[in-house]
Each structure stands twice: as C-alpha cells, then as structure tokens.
Amino acid sequence: MPRKFFKRYMPSVEKVRQVRALHLFGDALFHPALWHLNRRSAAGGVAVGMFCGLIPGPLQMLGAGVAAVLFRVNLPAALVTTLYTNPLTIVPLYLAAYKIGSLVMGATGGPPPAPPPDWDWSAQMASIEALGKWAMGLGAPLALGVFLLACLLAAAGYVVVRVLWNIHLRRAWVARRRRRPA
Question: What angle do the packed helices 124-138 and 90-105 form, to 10 degrees?
C-alpha cells in the first residue's frame, strides 16, 4: 500500500497532542507504534478495526482505540476501519452472524428468527432500541456468530492488507530495477 497516500490523510502526532481532551490518556496514546505506518501496524490496525466494527452501538471506535493501544498497531487504521458497519450494513452482518452461530451450535431446526424491525428515520433512538431488542432476542447463536464473524473478518482484513502491501512492494522493486542503468 502506498505509504505516501495514507500519510497525506493521517493526522500527525503533534496535531493529536494539541487536543487537550486527549491528555486524559497520558503518553499511552502517543506511543510511536500507534502512529507508525508499516505492513505490520497497518494490517494489525485493519484487523482490530474489523473485529471491533461488530461491537454493538457507539462503542466500536472506543473498543478499536483500546485494542490498538494494547496491541500497539496503527490507531488511525483501526478507527477508520470500524466504519464498515453502519445502519445499512449492520443488519445483514448480524443476520450472517446469526446463521454462522446457528450452524456452529447445530440449531438449524426450529422456527426461523423474527425479521429485523423497520428503521424509522424520524425516530432513530426508538429504531436503535428496537434493533437492540431484536438482536437480544436472537440469543446465543447471535453472540457466538458475532464473535466468529468478527474473528473471520479480522483475519481476512489482516491477510488482505499484508498481501496487497507485498504486491505493491514487489511492483515498486521491479519498477526500481527497470529504472537502474544496466
């Protein structure tokens, strides 16, 4: 992956240090590994973001931030990657997680789950509450499925970033070799 492209959009550590509210976290938030951009840190950041993206509610970025600090992976990559879940994608992801959980638990028989509630844009808080109640009604298959799907997405994200970064490096090496005089 082109480092220059990502560096252009990533905030510098100095700019982040200027945010007074972040001084609450001390120096842990400003560890160089959290802001360094290389194959391992970017792939780890994407994996953390993919895993934490399935955390319900507004805790996704908080979970990704804490996990990025604990695992010392790229913090901006972890935070941005959580954005793959939104009101349009969360229901299909949770339905897929329920199917995975049902398959693993062997709970394929029985009545099908209730359909997800309709989203009312004029009453978003009520829609979020209804969605939460619907998800809680799905029980153990959903919980296991969300965990397994999060692990699968994290592993896939890690591998994809590492492979794409390696492809980019190999192409850059070939281009550099061609530019050198023989």
Answer: 10
Are 14 and 57 in contact by the 8 Å Cβ rule? The answer is no
Identify the CA nearest to 112 among candidates 137, 93, 130.
137
Q: Count Cα neighbours of 70 within 13 Å in the Cβ-side half-sphere.
A: 7
Cβ atoms of 79 and 65 closer than 8 Å:
yes
**How confident is the prediction along the chain (182 residues), in pLDDT tens digits per residue?**
556 666 666 666 666 666 666 666 676 777 778 888 889 999 999 999 999 999 987 889 999 999 999 999 999 999 999 999 988 898 899 889 988 988 988 865 556 667 777 777 888 888 888 877 877 777 778 889 999 999 999 999 999 999 999 999 999 899 999 988 86
Torsion sign (Cα): 84, 55, 145, 109: negative
Please tell me the total count of domains within the chain.
1
CA–CA distance, 21 with 6 (Å, rounded to integer) = 25
Q: Is the dihedral of CA 64, 85, 43, 22 positive or negative?
A: negative
| Chain CA centroid to CA 28, Å | 21
Q: Residue 118 belongs to what domain range?
A: 3-179
Asked whether the beta carbons of 135 and 114 are under 8 A apart, the reply is no
